[in-house]
């Protein structure tokens, strides 16, 4: 069974059909990226969760284990295991905060991160080539969409996590 959307017919699609096709395509791309991440993690000798946590570490600044637990929804105990495995594999090191020796930062090891980037480079270059066809205005729209899509995904994850724990949603101020 293919998750790839069917080619549009010669008749113009309704707005609802186009929105449905966009949603379906985004979900298919997300699923494919998840599968890619699993293959990459296996190639690197990591668990998929470890790799996703490593990505969060490389995208942030001064990421602590506590912040990683908060962003992923994993328990602090689970995060300790994740951080131990990523550190053992050589992708990060724990660095003490010079102003508070009790606090640890998770610092990516540049040479090891470059190994991952080298593996990803082919896919990245194809992605950039595809994006190069868009005008500046279209890129602005895509960036706005990507930002909003990311924010919606984060909020949906937080809400689902709270529901799973039986927590009530806190009303938003404003």
Automatic annotation (TrEMBL):
<protein>
    <submittedName>
        <fullName>Transcriptional regulator</fullName>
    </submittedName>
</protein>
<dbReference type="GO" id="GO:0003700">
    <property type="term" value="F:DNA-binding transcription factor activity"/>
</dbReference>
<dbReference type="InterPro" id="IPR036388">
    <property type="entry name" value="WH-like_DNA-bd_sf"/>
</dbReference>
<dbReference type="InterPro" id="IPR036390">
    <property type="entry name" value="WH_DNA-bd_sf"/>
</dbReference>
<dbReference type="InterPro" id="IPR039422">
    <property type="entry name" value="MarR/SlyA-like"/>
</dbReference>
<dbReference type="Pfam" id="PF12802">
    <property type="entry name" value="MarR_2"/>
</dbReference>
<dbReference type="GO" id="GO:0006950">
    <property type="term" value="P:response to stress"/>
</dbReference>
<dbReference type="InterPro" id="IPR000835">
    <property type="entry name" value="HTH_MarR-typ"/>
</dbReference>
<feature type="domain" description="HTH marR-type">
    <location>
        <begin position="15"/>
        <end position="151"/>
    </location>
</feature>
